[in-house]
Amino acid sequence: MNRNLNLVVDMYGCPNRCKHCWLGHIPNKAPDKDIDRRLVDYFKPYFENITFYSWLREPDYAPDYKARWERDKEISIGIQPQRFELASFYRLARDRQYAKFLKNTGVKAVQLTFFGMERETDYFVGRAGAFDELMDATEVLLECGIVPRWQVFINERNKEELPELLEFSRLMGLPERCREIGGEFRFFVHEGSADGENRKLYDIRICKDSIPEKLIPYYMDYDAIFTEAQLCEKYHESEEYFIPYNDTDVTLNISGELDVYFNFTHMTPEWRIGNINTDSRETLIDRILNEKTPALETARKMTVGQLTEVYGNRESGRVFRDEDFKMYLLNRAAEEENRRV
Ligand code: SF4
Predict the structure, then answer these.
(1) Are 141 and 190 within 8 A, CB to CB?
(2) Is residue 260 a contact partner of residue 42, using CB atoms and an 8 Å limit?
(3) In this structure, are residues 284 and 276 in contact, taking their beta carbons and an 8 Å threshold?
(4) Residues 251 and 289: beta-carbon distance below 8 Å
(5) Which of 9, 10, 14 to mutate for ligand 1's pocket (most ligand atoms within 8 Å of CB)?
């Protein structure tokens, strides 16, 4: 009873199918509306504080997002849900009241995700019209006094187009217009983690020596990225274990079908803790508190050195950060183990 629980439930799904989505593409399957209270009651005997979020993917994708936000606050116990720099660009482009709602809840900046100009952004978001909606969302946010932040995913396919997107943000006057409303425009580029859908883009993962020079000042923590070859060299003899774990807070991601996962990485069978409807509560709570999933078993068996030897590519110039690289290796091992059993 001494830990905080974040319950993050995919009650409404997501309109997009982004090819970089770290959660992986899961179906939009709405659980019963009363599941929110049921889930809080289910976990109440085991956690002192419970913070409930009715969205796991697109925030505010609920048709009645205002009432939904109030409901999330009402059923949370001890610690209230927070707003982040995340919002629905789908809704920003369609509902003029939405930006006002964000402003009233204290949101000062909203992150919008791009993959280049129109063709590339529509392709990687998985929906025609996404780029135009992101442009609309940028304008709507500014009108409402909220700063838009442009997050840009880079890969070998779109890299040449990104300097043009940077230039475009300058032509739109975004740095000056954000300053006028008391904020700072940020344009930042990164490669994304290597789990979920982005893992499937391994073949076009950006190589360090092909990042356009013009983008390096805008690259997020450029000094923290390494080539896969460098990381193989660093870790091939490592005896450490890479075992993701919960600290004082436990965060559970719950799908529309009520499958339960930690928020360490994507939602695949190796990471599934269990199911609210089909597993007993005793079993599920034991697996949560003692951190038992097939992938965590794999993590306890193989050192980072062994993972690197088996799954690392010593010839690869692809970019990773330390933790993303270890998670990428672990996921490959866990999937292979899962296929064997
Ligand atoms: S990245 Fe976000 S918006 Fe894109 S598919 Fe995943 S959850 Fe939806």
Answers:
(1) no
(2) no
(3) yes
(4) no
(5) 14
**Which atom of ligand 1 sits closest to the CA of residue 196?**
6
SS3 state of residue 20: coil
* Distance of CA 118 from the midpoint of ligand 1 (Å): 18
For residue 20, give the ligand 1 atom closest to its CA: 1
Distance 17 CA to ligand 1 centre (A): 6
pLDDT over 80 at 128, yes or no: yes
Burial group, residue 236, by CB count within 10 angstroms (0-12, 13-18, 19+)? middle
Taking the C-alpha atoms of residue 150 and residue 142, their distance in angstroms, rounded to an integer, is 13
3-state secondary structure of 7: strand
| Beta strand ranges found along the chain (DSSP E) | 4-9, 49-53, 109-114, 147-153, 186-190, 226-227, 249-254, 259-262, 272-275, 319-320
pTM above 0.90, yes or no: yes
**246 contacts: CB under 8 Å, gap ≥ 6:** 3, 262, 291
Quote the radius of gyration of the chain (alpha carbons, Å). 21
Helix axes 304-311, 322-340, angle to 10 degrees: 70
Tell me how crowded residue 190 is: count the other CB atoms within 10 A of its CB.
19
Give bridge partners of residue 261 from the DSSP assignment. 253, 272
Q: Which residue has the tokens 């905080």?
A: 4
Q: Is the CB of 161 under 6 A from ligand 1?
A: no
What confidence tens digit (pLDDT) does each residue in 265-320 have?
999 999 999 999 999 999 999 999 999 999 999 999 999 999 999 999 999 999 99
What is the secondary structure of 213-261 as a DSSP string?
Answer: GGGGGGBTTGGG-EEHHHHHHHHTT----------SEEEEEE-TT-EEE
Residue owning the nearest CA to atom 4 of ligand 1: 18
Regarding the beta carbon of 9 and ligand 1, being less than 6 Å apart is answered: no
- 214, with CB counted inside 10 A (0-12, 13-18, 19+), is exposed
Burial annotation 269-279 (CB, 10 A radius, 16+ → b, else e): ebbbbbebeeb
Amino acid occupying residue 69 = W
d(CA 5, CA 44): 9
